[in-house]
Structure formats: C-alpha cells, structure tokens
Write a structure and sequence with these properties.
Elements: H1 6-9, H2 22-33, E1 40-44, H3 51-63, H4 79-85, E2 92-96, H5 103-113, E3 123-128, H6 135-146, E4 152-158, H7 166-169, E5 173-176, H8 182-195, H9 202-211, H10 216-226, H11 235-242, H12 247-258, H13 262-274, H14 279-298, H15 310-321, H16 325-344, H17 348-357, H18 361-368
Parallel strand pairs: 1-4, 1-5, 2-3, 3-4
Helix pairs in contact: 3-4, 5-6, 8-9, 9-10, 9-11, 12-13, 12-14, 12-15, 13-17, 14-15, 14-16, 14-17, 16-17
Length: about 375
C-alpha cells in the first residue's frame, strides 16, 4: 500500500472532527441543518488550522447524495463524497490563487460558473490563498460574488485577510480560524500516536504540539518524521529534528550568563557549535528563551504560552526569581541588535561569542552607566 502522510491520512472528514474550531464547526453545521447556505464564504487564519479541510467538508455536506438535501454529516462513502475527497469531482473546483493570479483566470472561472452542475447539487469553487489575486482579478470577481448563480458556492481561503479587498470581504460570510489550543492538539496527536503505534512519551508529544505553534498540520508532519526514529521517542529527539537548541542547553547557557562567568559562557557556546548548531540559530533560540524567562518572571502560571517542558519550566521559574526584569529586557535588546551582525558577517562564530559576552550583567550595566 502506498505511503500516506499523517496529515493526509487524518484530515478531518466531518465538522465534528475539526480540532480546536468548535465555534466555526457548530455555525456551519447549523447553517446546513437550517438550509441557510450563503453563496460566498471567506475562511481566514494561520496555516494548518483547518481552512481547506473545512472547504472540502462543506462541499461534501452540500452534495452528499445519501440525503436529498444538504446535511451537516456527509456519509463520506457515496460516489460524490469520495470524488470530492480525492479531487476528481467535476463540480468541485479547487484553485491555487498563487498560480492563477490574473484577471483572465478569474474571467474563465466566472464563465464556467454560469453552467449548471454536472453531477452535484452545487458547484463549489475553492480559491486558496485568495490574497494572491491581483486587484483586477478581485474586481472581476465582485459582481459574481454579489449575485452568483443559485447553484454555485464560492469559498475563499487566506492566511492574510488584510490583503483581501474590503469589497470582497463585505460580500462573504467571514470565519476566522484560530491557532489550535495546546490541550486539544496534544489529545489529537496522542490519538494518532496510539493508532499508528508510535512510541513517544508525553513530554515529547507536548513539545511537538508547542513547537508547532497552533498549526496542526505542522504538528502531524513533525510526528510523522519522529515516527521514523528508534523508539522510544523523547524530547531531545524533537529538538534535534527541528534543528533548534535543546532547552536544557539554553538554560545552562543563560545560567552561565547571569552568573557573570565569561569563560563558562564561551565553553557552553563552543559545545553547542561543536554539536553542529548554527551561530544564528543559537542567537535566535536564545532570544526566544529570554522571552520565555520574562514570562516565567511575570506570569509563572502560564506555561501554555511557552514551548518548554515542565521540568525545565520549573528550573526557569527558580532562575527568573533572582533576575531583574530590566536586565532581561536589556538582554533582549542586545540580542536583537546583534542578530543582523551575526546574520551578515563572514565570521558568525566569532560574532556569536562577542554577542554572548555582551550579555554578561557586568557588561550590560557598564554599557548603560553614563
């Protein structure tokens, strides 16, 4: 049997299977139940949060032939549902706006929309990444969105709604997809790991969810990659795979910095680079760690805001108690100003070490003293 990536295999097939988008799923299901179907929808939100999946579910719900009317629960097994799922349905047209940006592409779409559906109740057009359309293409679409044929539904999806014309937005029912909350994502990943017999511990699973920053597709892809490693899969394997600096190494580096111990700082930096970490990645990860320390200092009960495992979070809270917020903010400013230098230099290792020594409390204090 051909290999199927996890994010394809576990793509939601009904509104009830959408993870972390309960309000949107309920609204669309109720609209179908009450036969209050709009002619144009706009799905906005970050990548991997369910926009395209929702468009496909809506198309199946409108056209499932097991019912003689649109249903919030498509069967998924009839010919229409299967053809929509595998992309072979004649009346389900999915367009990548990044590749079809011009007005001619949209005019051709509008002309075809005038014809009656061939095999379905509704002809459904999904325009993905619609913010990539040109202004002329948007304007050509305006009249059709306002008064489309009775058996046509347009679904526009975008990760950048600010670039969609206000006149387009006003003609659509807008749904804003949020990043998937941490706990529902962990529960979903745990179910997949159980079903696929992936031996991954809870700490690593939580880290996968946190690193993905609310994008379920990213989390599933990362879990798919981790499944190729030797079991059991632990948190260090996650850090190695995403190319980031492990949190314990960052903690050790920060402890050396706050202790004002220059030699220890250089030794920690050398260890990281000897293990293949890029200087720029070390600097960027350290900037993120300083931000996490600020959260540990000011909002110690909000571990959900950081991609840190519980044991390290406890150590960070202990460390942050003795740190001054002003010192952390100065460190952040220093890291931001030195990132450009490390990025553009021909000697990134040298400038990383110089930048790290600039974070020592004695250096920061002397730099701010008039």
């Amino acid at each position: 049997m051909a290999y199927e990536p996890l994010h394809h295999k576990y793509r939601p097939q009904t509104f009830g299977e959408l993870v972390g988008q309960d309000a949107i799923a309920t609204t669309l299901a109720n609209a179908l139940q009450q036969q209050r179907i709009a002619h144009a929808y706009l799905f906005c939100g970050p990548r991997g949060t369910g926009k395209t999946s929702s468009a496909r579910i809506l198309a199946k719900s409108l056209n499932c032939i097991r019912q003689d009317h649109p249903t919030p629960e498509p069967c998924g097994t009839c010919e229409t549902c299967r053809s929509i799922a595998n992309g072979s349905a004649l009346d389900f047209i999915e367009i990548d706006a990044a590749s079809n940006t011009g007005v001619d592409n949209i005019r051709e779409l509008i002309e075809r929309a005038q014809f009656a559906p061939v095999q379905c109740r509704y002809k459904v057009y999904v325009i993905d990444e619609c913010h990539m359309l040109s202004t002329a293409a948007f304007n050509a679409l305006l009249k059709t969105l306002e008064e489309p044929p009775s058996n046509v539904v347009f679904i526009l999806a975008t990760t950048d709604p600010q670039r969609v014309l206000p006149t387009i937005i006003s003609r659509c029912q807008r749904f804003d997809y949020r990043r998937i909350p941490l706990e529902p994502m962990i529960g979903h990943l745990r179910a997949i790991a159980s079903q696929e017999a992936i031996d991954i511990n809870d700490e690593a699973l939580r880290l996968v969810a946190q690193v993905s920053q609310g994008g379920l597709r990213d989390a599933q892809s990362l879990l798919d990659q981790l499944s190729l490693l030797e079991p059991p899969i632990e948190a260090d394997a996650v850090w190695d795979l995403v190319g980031a600096v492990p949190e314990q190494d960052l903690l050790a580096l920060v402890q050396a910095i706050v202790s004002d111990h220059g030699t220890a700082v250089l030794e920690q930096a050398r260890k990281l680079m000897d293990r293949g970490r890029e200087p720029l990645i070390v600097l960027q990860n350290l900037a993120g760690f300083y931000r996490d320390l600020l959260i540990a200092k000011t909002a110690g009960d909000r571990q959900d805001l950081v991609a840190i495992t519980p044991p390290t979070w406890a150590d960070m809270q202990t460390l942050a108690q003795d740190l001054d917020i002003a010192l952390l903010l100065q460190g952040q400013q220093h890291l931001r100003s030195t990132e450009v230098q490390v990025k553009n230099t021909t000697q990134p290792r040298l400038w990383l070490e110089v930048s790290l020594l600039g974070l020592l409390p004695s250096t920061l204090i002397s730099a701010t003293t008039p």
